Amino acid sequence: MNLNVEIDTQSGFCNGVIRAINTAEKNLGDNGLYSLGAIVHNSEELGRLNSIGLKVIDIEQMKGMRDTTVLIRAHGEPPQTYEIAWQNNIKLIDCTCPVVLKLQEKIRDTYSEIRQNHNGPCGQIVIFGKEGHAEVNGLVGQVNGDAVIVDVIHTENGVSFKGIEKIDCLRPVYIFSQTTKDPKEYVTICGKIRSNISQAHNCTLEEADRYIKIHNTICRQVAQRHENLVEFARKHSVIIFVSGKESSNGKVLYDLCKSVNKNSYHIQNTGQIELWWLKENDSVGICGATSTPKWQLENVAEYLKNL
Ligand code: SF4
After folding, report:
1. Measuring from atom 4 of ligand 1, which residue has the nearest CA?
2. 20 to 30 A from 54, CA-CA: which of 165, 171, 179, 231?
3. Where is average pLDDT lowest: 54-63, 234-243, 246-255?
4. Residue 117: pLDDT above 80?
5. Do the bridges between strand 147-155 and strand 158-162 make them parallel or antiparallel, or are there none, so unpaired?
6. Ligand 1: which atom is nearest the Cα of residue 221?
7. Are 230 and 260 in contact (CB under 8 A)?
8. What pLDDT score was predicted for residue 276?
9. Region of residue 163 (left: phi > 0; alpha: psi -120 to 50; beta: else)
10. How high is the pLDDT of residue 118?
11. Looking at 45, 77, 135, 185, which residue is catalytic?
12. Which of 257, 307, 247, 285 has the alpha carbon at shortest distance from 45?
């Protein structure tokens, strides 16, 4: 089959993931290395790293360990993890992405400010993110869990807003986003919260702005990819999107491709490619998430060229 295949040059690991993987590889040593949680949400890359000695553990396993070394991935961790490490004499190789570290610090600072200086009702921290996601757990941990997590959920009838009812609209809202969320969804959910605040205060939307502070904390690399990917998905007849099914960023970027090109397909490996997706002389764009290695995109391109 003759296909014109192009790999999106902007796809592949983000800087945070590259840094964490390079650091892991440098520190593997003869006995391997423990990683707290999957260093990347991609089973193919995890398999490669596992074969050279990177062992994934969870927090319960870490609690039972002593006198060893554990790597913290780019997503970051809540303060409790650092305490466990200290108590168990565990050396940490901290690969928290600098962008995530900055966000954690911003949330901590805002929380301490709103608790110290307020005239009237105390403000609340709201995090737009996927509940249970490692980065979100790390963010919520900065304020001892005293935060409301909200998310946009896609349903058959459109979108719904998860967790938004837990926000007390009569108290000021300080909202932050998980770094890998969709910028457009962030705008949508902030608009909804702003409208709820205006109703609760019986004021105009402009007046409601006094009660909401929106922090633009989506990673710039991610935001940039959204813009580029729309263009890339539009110019090809078929899109093969490669990422782990557990990748939060993968889901967001795949949905974006699908929204502009209905012939978009999500795969984890070449074994999932179906021939009926393709026809002679198709132009096929291959792209992926911030957790998709370049080598995997190249494998897919090679596979298609050999069909
Ligand atoms: S997406 Fe951005 S913030 Fe998140 S790990 Fe990658 S570089 Fe860091």
Report:
1. 179
2. 179
3. 246-255
4. no
5. antiparallel
6. 2
7. yes
8. 96
9. left
10. 64
11. 135
12. 247
CATH 3.90.580.10 for domain 4-11+221-305, yes or no, is: no
Pocket mutation for ligand 1, best pick of 179, 225, 226, 292 (most atoms within 8 Å of C-beta) = 179
Ligand 1-lining residues (CB < 6 angstroms): 14-17, 74, 97, 99-100, 179-180, 219, 221-222, 290
Whole-prediction pTM: 0.88
Stretch 124-151: mean pLDDT: 96
Closest ligand 1 atom to residue 14 Cα is: 6
Please give the number of the atom of ligand 1 that sits closest to the Cα of 135: 4
Helix (H, G, I), strand (E, B) or coil at 63: helix
pLDDT bin (cut points 50, 70, 90) of residue 29 is confident
Which part of the chain has CATH 3.40.1010.20?
A: 4-11+221-305
Q: Is the pLDDT of residue 116 over 90?
A: no
Q: What is the mean pLDDT of residues 52-79?
A: 96
For atom 7 of ligand 1, which residue has the closest CA? 16
pLDDT higher than threshold 90 for residue 43? no
Cα separation, 43 vs 45, whole angstroms: 6
Residue 218 CA to ligand 1 centre (angstroms): 9
DSSP state of 180: T
User: Which numeric CATH code is attached to 15-97?
Assistant: 3.40.50.11270
Q: Has 135 been annotated as catalytic? A: yes
